[in-house]
Amino acid sequence: MKVHESARVSYHYHCKMESQSRRYHRNAHCRDKPVLHEIFLTLEELSRGCTKRMKIAAKVFNDDFRIIRTDEKIITMDVPAGSKDGTKIVVPSAGDVKPGIIPGDVIFVIRERQHPCFTRDDENNLIYKVEISLREALTGCNINIPMLNGEFLTLSTQDVVCHGARKRISGKGMPRGGGNLGDLLVEFSVSFPVELNETQKESINSILPD
User: Fold this and answer.
1) What is the 3-state secondary structure (H, E, C) of the chain?
2) Which CATH number fits domain 29-112: 2.60.260.20, 2.40.40.10, 1.10.287.3510, 2.60.40.1080?
3) What would the pLDDT profile of 42-73 be if each residue is shown by its tens digit?
């Protein structure tokens, strides 16, 4: 899983947690365990990158390890374009404040929501599956693909398309970093007729070679 520690993260404290934390940290010798939160994002959000504001609560303990208050924090995070499912964004030492213990990190784990049209592979290529008829597979067709940016891309086929064939369109996938983009892979599924009458069979036999 990729970890982003450089993402912009800002805090808005509702209480005086920062000074309390510094006082407890002076003699701290161990770190508390991290706190995990999941963020569910659409493929569109992950494609263009987005900013999310998340509210978390951190408990503040006194020297007897009793909770004296709960501080709320609003954390603003920049999610980089092209981030993958499982990417971690780390907010250092933003967990509970306990005497003699360094607060644990708060870690946000990105989860990708299922998309109705696309999936993506490990190289940030987008995969689009389309079903066409046998006639379209043999004679050609136009396919309008709804892209993540709201536009449509038209793919025209001229040659015979086999079932399971893939067409690669360069630079139409997810961001890879460094200004590079993955590809769009269009995967064809050919739908065959359930039955043919005798006239149709004779027509096909007269057209198609042995």
Assistant:
1) CCEECCCCEEEEECCCHHHHHHHHHCCCCEECCCEEEEEEECHHHHHHCEEEEEEEEEEEECCCCCEEEEEEEEEEEEECCCCCCCCEEEECCCCCEECCEECCCEEEEEEECCCCCEEECCCCCEEEEEEEEHHHHHHCEEEEEECCCCCEEEEEECCCCCCCCEEEECCCCCEEECCEECCEEEEEEEECCCCCCHHHHHHHHHHCCC
2) 2.60.260.20
3) 999 999 999 999 998 999 999 888 999 999 98
